[in-house]
Amino acid sequence: MKTFHLPLLAILLCPTSASAQDSQPPFSQLKESVRRIITQRLYTGLDEKAFNRSGDIVSVAVVKTLSEDELVTPSNVKEILAILHSAFACPARCIAGSDDRKPNVTLLLLEHLRSHTSGSLQSEVDETKEFIVRKSHSAGVI
Questions:
Q1: R_g of the chain computed on alpha carbons
Q2: Tens-level pLDDT at each residue, the chain (142 residues)
Q3: Distance linking the first and last C-alpha atoms of the chain
Q4: Up-side HSE of residue 43: CA atoms within 13 Å toward CB?
Q5: Which residues of 52-91 are buried (b: 16+ CB within 10 A; e: fewer)?
Q6: CA atoms of 81 and 24, how far apart (whole Å)
Q7: CA 118, CA 125: separation in Å to the nearest integer?
Q8: Whole-angstrom distance, CA of residue 117 vs CA of residue 115
């Protein structure tokens, strides 16, 4: 009789473990991903997935992880823009927390980056901002 309950228990637990995978990653993991991407220029699929699920909190991780000098270095700005693009790629479906679907901190970070860049890099910042605003608007959060 006990062997009958084991498969039933496994079936009942599968949906629980799948939904746990859809939750937002820990803040420390986001910070580690940001640090690795900036220092090693190594961007993995796991980073992409974590950023997709996190939204606005990713900007907090960027600001908490990088110094002001690191934040505005042109090569780092490009990496940061890619990170922010991932964070708002699918706000309606992917981002776990409803507050993180609103790009409040992200828009402030983008304004800061824009004020410390020029030329084509400034245009990239503007394009990223337009993308995030458009995605957030279509998700109904702005």
A1: 18
A2: 444 444 433 444 444 333 334 578 999 999 999 999 999 999 999 999 999 999 999 999 999 999 999 999 999 999 999 999 999 999 999 998 899 999 999 999 999 999 999 999 999 999 999 999 999 998 888 7
A3: 55
A4: 13
A5: bbbbbbbbbbbbebbeeeebbeeebbebbbbbbebbbbeb
A6: 20
A7: 10
A8: 6
